[in-house]
Amino acid sequence: MPKITYKDQKGNSKTINVENGLTVMEGAVQNNIPGIDADCGGGMACATCHVYVEDSWFNKLPKSEDAEQDMIDMAYKPKKNSRLSCQLIVSDELDGLIVTTPEKQS
What we know:
By secondary structure, the protein is of the alpha+beta class. Helix content is 18%, strand content 20%.
């Protein structure tokens, strides 16, 4: 199983194994990762799963769709490396992915 590292703005991190086919958000929720609330359950309607993707990983991910970008625009302090973790499907190619939750979500 791929390992995903979740970090917060205080420098705390937790690395967990996430099953292929789940989203980065689902892995966080199943493992009680703080800062990823997923209020809409992955319906891309709330941005409470907003994360910053480590720069070294950002261009390795599939491009975001317009609907995801629209939701990110409403998120807390969006950046060029912002993604909704509900839209990141875990696969072997994401082994080692590092994401950080925004300060307001931590």
